[in-house]
Design goal:
With 107 residues, the protein is mainly alpha-helical. Helices cover 64% and strands 0% of the residues.
């Protein structure tokens, strides 16, 4: 994880290390270690940090410079398609996609 990103997010939220540690359910010393690059958080902690600050794990890991989650980049139609697929409703997703294609092509 990019230690400077954790520190920046914490400071932007006006939290000290103890407050963030309490909110994440970990020790204050761990936050200090993460921010100073002494240790790397486990995946579950990276996920908790991402959810807490509403950023992507890719941003925390330095794989993206965009802090937002992918969901913020999707329009309502795209979210509906993904939701249908997650529910196992493939035909519903296909209908949503097909209707979108018809609108684009003027059918």
């Amino acid at each position: 994880m990019r230690s400077e990103r954790l520190r920046q997010l914490r400071e932007q939220s006006d939290l000290n290390q103890a407050q963030l540690a309490e909110k994440l359910g970990i020790g204050e010393q761990q936050i200090w270690r993460y921010e100073n690059g002494e240790t790397e958080p486990k995946g579950i902690i990276v996920a908790k940090i991402a959810v807490f600050f509403n950023v992507s794990t890719d941003y925390l890991l330095g794989l993206s410079d965009e802090p937002g989650t992918y969901q913020e980049k999707l329009d309502s139609k795209e979210r509906a398609i993904i939701a249908a697929l997650r529910r196992g409703e493939r035909m519903e997703a296909i209908k949503l996609i097909a209707n979108d294609e018809k609108a684009i092509n003027g059918a």
